[in-house]
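batch_manifest entry 22 of 60
target: PF12977 structural domain protein
source organism: Hafnia alvei ATCC 13337
requested by: lab member K.T.
priority: normal
notes from requester: please return tokens only, no post-processing; we will run our own comparison against the previous entry in this batch. if the run fails, retry once and flag.
--- input ---
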Amino acid sequence: MSGYRYRITVEPIADRKGEPIDKAPISFEVENHDEILSIVERLGARDDLPFTGDKSKAFAVGLKLFSESLLENRKHPLFDDLRDSFRAFMMTLKGIKRGESAEEAKEG
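--- output ---
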């Protein structure tokens, strides 16, 4: 095992009209190179993002699940169009400017 392991559960609550959804939850296990819960906390504490609370948690978890898939399958043609754009997006999210190292961004 080379990463952190997580169990993700999606439990239906209500449809667009507020009616209960009669479907069983799904649950699956994934591995991620990052400690996702710390990332959720850090993003939740930021005041420069356009969401808070549950929206912030959903963003962080979704982003980490997607980015891990992208990393694991980086040579697959499906991801060709996303690779450079996603890298730029992550640099922006992390506050890293072009030519600046991650350590420099943390100091600034």
